[in-house]
Amino acid sequence: MRFLDQIPLFPLALVAIAFGLAPFTPEPHLVEKTRMLMAGELVRLIDIFDFLFHGVPLLLLVVRLARAAITRA
Length: 73
What we know:
- Helices cover 77% and strands 0% of the residues.
- By secondary structure, it is mostly helical.
- It has one domain (2-72).
- Helix 2 packs antiparallel against helix 4 (45-72) and helix 3 (29-39) packs across helix 4 (45-72).
- It is elongated and about 40 Å long.
């Protein structure tokens, strides 16, 4: 997981915010796909790919921040 520690935090945060909120209208894909997941409607391959595409940067940011907090404690 050292490769994750080497990713600069600011660019990762920008990418996570941009991908997490894109497209801005009518509703971000991440919100739409999360609703579909909770409703059990996330079954098409394109929807699953879209959910992962928009969600992975946010997941990486959360893991990166958690690892930084743990190593500083």
